[in-house]
Write a structure and sequence with these properties.
165 residues, alpha+beta, 4-stranded antiparallel sheet, 26% strand
Length: 165
């Protein structure tokens, strides 16, 4: 059974002020980078990318209903990557915003090339040494048509973690 029902989950937008109490789960970061249909930020975003964003937001809201999940302040999830994007490419891209501690692209080992490197699943993770670097990277790369292509833009948000991880 979920710890909260859907009516109890309120994700504040990152621009709201007047927080009350301590935000132990970093929920103020949950809506950072969300692009909603009909907004200026959604102009030029393909229907396929908007659907990916919508599904990701629904999944995030569902996970955050469980009080064991929280929003990481220094780790980002980067989705919608081209299959040719490597760990080196991702690290180079994100290093512009601060010191990158770790980069990992999820790969399908069943579809490995001759060098034994699996085909990219199109998403990966980046960990920064400082929280503000992660926030700067998210704001600069999320939905940026100049990172991959204007038709396929990065979907970047803060990683959700469980208390145990």
């Amino acid at each position: 059974k979920a710890a909260l029902d859907s009516k109890q989950l309120i994700l504040p937008d990152s621009k709201s002020s007047g927080k009350t109490g301590k935000d132990n789960r970093n929920l103020h970061l949950a809506m950072e980078g969300v692009i909603k249909e009909g907004t200026n930020a959604a102009a030029g975003v393909s229907k396929a990318d908007m659907m990916k964003r919508k599904l990701a937001l629904e999944a995030k809201k569902k996970k955050l209903k469980n009080i064991n999940f929280f929003v990481s302040t220094d780790r980002l999830c980067v989705r919608n990557m081209p299959s040719t994007f490597s760990e080196t490419d991702l690290k180079q891209l994100m290093s512009k915003y601060g010191h990158v501690v770790q980069v990992k692209i999820m790969r399908d080992v069943k579809q490995a090339n001759s060098a034994g490197i699996g085909k990219s699943k199109g998403y990966g993770f980046v960990q920064f040494s400082k929280d503000d670097a992660a926030l700067a990277a998210l704001r600069a790369t999320n939905n940026n048509p100049n990172v991959y292509t204007s038709a396929k833009r990065p979907i970047v948000d803060f990683l959700l973690k469980t208390v145990e991880s």
